[in-house]
Amino acid sequence: MALDKNQIAKRIARELQDGYYVNLGIGIPTLVANHIPPGINVTLQSENGILGMGQFPYDGEEDADLINAGKQTVTLLPGSAIFDSSLSFAMIRAQKVNLTVLGAMEVSDTGDIASWKIPGKMVKGMGGAMDLVASAQNIIVCMMHTNKAGESKLLKKCSLPLTGLGCVKRIITDLGMFEVTKDGFKLTERAPGVSVEEIKAKTEGRLVVEGEVPEMTV
Amino acid sequence: MDKRVTDADAALKGLKDGMTLMVGGFGLCGIPENLIAALARHGVKGLTCISNNAGVDDFGLGLLLKTKQIKKMIASYVGENAEFERQMLSGELEVDLIPQGNLAERCRAGGSGIPAFFTPAGYGTEVAEGKETREFDGKMYVMERWLRADYSLVKAWKGDTNGNLVYRHTARNFNPVMAMAGTITIAEVEHLVEPGEIDPDQVHTPGIFVHRIFQGKNYEKRIEQRTVRQRA
Lengths: 218, 232
Description:
The structure holds two protein chains of two kinds. Chain A is of the alpha/beta class. Chain A is 16% helix and 26% strand. Chain A has helices spanning 5-13, 28-31, 85-93, 129-135, 196-201, and strands at residues 21-24, 43-46, 50-53, 76-82, 99-102, 106-108, 113-114, 117-118, 122-123, 139-142, 154-155, 170-172, 176-181, 184-190, 207-208. By secondary structure, chain B is α/β, with parallel strands linked by helices. Helix content of chain B is 19%, strand content 27%. Chain B is built from six helices and eleven strands. In chain B, strands 1, 2, 3, 4, 8, 9, 10 and 11 form an eight-stranded mixed beta sheet that branches. In chain B, strands 5-7-6 form a three-stranded antiparallel beta sheet. Classes of the chains: A alpha/beta, B alpha/beta. At the A-B interface, helix 3, strand 9 and helix 4 of A face helix 4, helix 5 and helix 6 of B.
């Protein structure tokens, strides 16, 4: 069975280490915050100017002056800090943020990522994604393995305009987990019940399969 | 120096067709609502607007898009505005999309007397096309120029008549760096107070950057994504 969005988020959450500063992108990455393992203390950075972002507010306590980068109402945890956009990207650019998790439309087997534009069709803008991927110590991309037409999103070369060059370290899709190596996408875990053959068939970029690939526990 | 003016209309004196404006805010959070409404009323045209987002269809800068008062938009993310996307794809609106951190730093540079700087964001992408690139300590960087504005329109929570500003929560966002980069900077505040009422240690934007200040009214402070949890 392919993973659902929450299972993807849960698997990513296991990559978090105690003391990490983490930036979670819009969509599936945001769900990672719901699955932080007990005993692991991470500080969430939101690029619109928060360190120490908390959960959604209780109904009736939402504050128009307190949102995350996805424009959702949020709360502040004790010990949080607020700052302007320039300082926010200063800490991102200076690699103070340990892990960035974001979505993508395409990833190449050399770690390029495309996520912000479909020429002539959809242009939403890159927001903070280009800054984040250009500077993050560690980037995990989470996305569906194929697009709506069933075509692979793990490619030899991105067809869409790039967000960043050679920056993605790891990818988690509904079918498995992959490390970007010099030889291509190295399959490190399979989603429960998903075969290596299925992953091979749905991966257009170079895929590296070494020995028995373990099944993911979720 | 007393920088107070009566209202948004008085504050916008001298703003003409074809000028470049910076407009603070992130989404609809921390936008200068009174000033945007006044611009829509005045009908000034051909504006270049520098703002992280373009509002939504019926609020924020979306109001000025609807009336076609904006000729060019410089932003990082415009996904919340269908009219924007339509005008951009049809070519009616000139658009320069730039990475959010570059946008913030270009404003900060403009307000700091730094004409250009090197940044890693956008290297190897179409954002870097035509720009100087250079390697420093083994990593590639792109040269980006400062951004400055004829008028910077910002929103703060509290301000004194000297122009000292204090922002509240994430309504701070781009407001401090844009306040620095305007030839004329106008601040609208929810609470206008006398000098001495703001603790100098708590000032976010020193008054030297602010030329005109007024107390806004009828703040709607619209929430784009109202996300809540229920009590157990």
